Write the structure tokens for this entry.
Amino acid sequence: MSEIAVRATPELRYRYAAGRYASAFLQGLRDGRILASRCHRCARTLVPPRIACTGCFAGMDEIVTLPPRGTLLAFTLVAFPFLDPFTGIPRPVPYCYGMVKLEGADNTFQYFLSEKDPGRLRVGQTVRAVFREERTGSLADLLHFAPVEG
Amino acid sequence: MRPVGIVGVAQTRHAERRDDVNYAELAFEVVSDLLARTGWSHDRIDTVITASSDFWDGRTISDMAVQDAAGAAGKSASKVSMDGTFALVYAAARIASGAYRTCLVVAHGKASEGNPRLIANAAFDPIFQRPMGIDDHTALGLQARAFLDRKGLTPEALAEAATQSAAAAAMNANAHRRQAAHVLVADPLHEDEIAPDSDGACAVLLADAETVRGEAVWLDGFGFATDVHGLGDRDLGEPGVLPQVAREAYRRAGVQDPDRELDVVEVHDASSAQTLLWREGLGLSESGGPAWNPSGGAMSAQPGFATGLVRVAEVFGRLARGEGKTGLAHGMTGFVGQAHCAWILRKRARA
Amino acid sequence: MRDPVAIVGAGQTAHRSRRLDVSAPELIDEAVQAALLDARLEPDGIDAVVVGNMEHFEGIHLSDLWAVEGTGGAGKPQLKVATGGTTGSSLAQAAYYLVAGGFFRTVMAVGWERLSDSEGETTTGIVTAFDPIYERPTLAGAVSGLAILACQYQAKYGTRAEEAALVVVQARENAARNSHAHLRQPVTVAEVLASPVLSTPIRYLDMCPTSDGACAVVFTSRPGDGRAAWVRGVSSRHNHTYLGDVTEGSVSYLHTLRLAAEDAYRQAGVADPRQELDVVEMYEPCTWAAFEWAEALGLCGPGEAARMWAEGATRRDGEIPVNPSGGVLCTNPIGATGLIRVAEASMQVRGTAGERQVDGARLALATGFGGSFWSEVMVLAAER
């Protein structure tokens, strides 16, 4: 008995509502600023901003601007090809991203890094945010984080 | 079953699109509302069960998007990938086991972010059924035709049921306001005889007998079951496993004469045919008996997996306000009623 | 107040890269029949079923409803619990609570996945678990998420790649004794280090495979005379709105596993896990994670896990055997993987683990891991 496999390719499109906080954050990027939410009860500051404080469940009403600088806590160079669910085509590799503890934030922000050689990156390095010249209110307005020399 | 009581409920105003919120904000909205209504702080919640659909949300592990916003940070939480009434079973079990004193159930659905018809098509068998282009609406049409034929009814019976649902929905502040036309969508069903695709959420807070004191609304019994999958493997014009589910719920709750003992019933009717068919499946006579879908049922709003939990919230609300002592809330998962769940709620002093 | 609950049967399929010889319901049935046989039960001895499967991988919405003829759920109460990588362990927990709460006497947990149906797009599916705006652009599925974790661990303790590679070398040795396992051929440290880099520092052979497979486990409050594995502790914790939150204020990256384990140990009366546990079936999605998890579970101190492996303490005949089944590094059908940990742990305690039996095992731990750094823990004992 031969084995038959039937191919079915559901092509499903989604339109995700960004919501209040992400909309504010993206507008902040367009203005060249990185925004975080701060809890009025416990002062926890989290980036990107979000509605629920993970510590005390208060609504995070306060929006603050963070300095575009921080410490690199982890990084990785992605080297294997895979299909990007956004584009439907393989994501270009290699690329590098890391977790940045921005000054004043209690958590880390995950984003692309300028350096493509992981040998030149170090946990504990100071990095700074680099914005694009032309900005439209999308995450890509932030180009990457780059190590600060010295 | 060991006593599990309902502390409070909340639901959003259901709508065609809630573009102002992402999933976390939607969950936070309904949970904050619940906490405000009950006067509880979130740290009194011991554990959380969420209900959501990965395909609807366009997110694998769709619960990840709502857990923290539902107050689950730092707590044991889990999720049921079915309608909220089924999640309620798991939640009640966590309390009945004695491991937790209180449990929050949060269900959400945003029909507006994906294409519900294409998503529904993806639920049908990829080899034998999907290629026909079947979706939930066409399946409902098949069911409605089979039902009318079996009962010897004309399509006017569906129009009449739809009119009654719409009249009730007009009195429901949380209903999804829509303009539904009397236009054929899937023969014999017209647009106004099919439940809408809604965005919304619902939350129910459960607690054990030590926490819920005095007269309150209790979860007295449940039943749930899943039927076979293939549309040709079951008679769509029949109520399927619903009679078995209802019998189980009645047995666990000690209900012997539902027509007489139930004061209010809320069912998830995805079409006007189901409004009539599920009534039969619950063993109720065609007229008289309990208040039937006073909210307008799912015809008033159908926010995905929150739909059945909203039925629980509606029954709770009426019993809490003194509009009866015993109610039944029904939910479904799957199309044309493959899986059913029924809960019996009773307002009574703690036994 | 709780009804004591025991596992009385477990079954699993032959896990492979592609099980093209069966449809999903047939694959599931293979595991279900094996579990019924092991539990000495007929299908009508099962009162309810809890099933798990990640519908996006196979592209079947409401896959539980579609597969009902394989799960034994047709005409029965059936719940679906699907929580990503933790699906299998979440299933075990749900089945446990349904019995402990007195809702049903005997409940079967069934998990399955046919990752071959996603035709190499498992990472694509996993990426969609994360936020479309903030996380998907950078994340490369579980691989890069785990690579970030490994980077931190490596920076903190200076652990070398050769040390991490020992984890999979040992896993394959164990899997050679497990006919159900997917990857059973031995590997050497040199081979691991020569395998392609996926996402630094994780190489191809550091990472778990994707498998087709199913697993079923029977939970009951009335075990009868047969050997039973009693559930003595159950817990879970997660921490995630966005991935960057996981490092928020925590010293150990996977603090959720530490918290869940502490809770489960407390329930089970375990004061010194290293001494008291006889065997651990942990959900280690990559070699580096095994070190992190072992420390979070309290099996050794911070930074000491590499030495534990190097000294052979984690071998089947060692002081604290880890994954005698071969673990996730050898077998990973996502909807079943966490349940396989529970099944294997229960077999150890019941003495039915055959060639991979740890002699005299009476107290076992099973863990689950998944998206949102979800950690689940179950403690099983030969005594009630």
Q: What stands out?
A: Chain A touches chain B at residues 6, 8, 10-22, 50-52, 54-57, 59 (CB under 8 Å). The two ends of chain A are 69 Å apart (CA to CA).
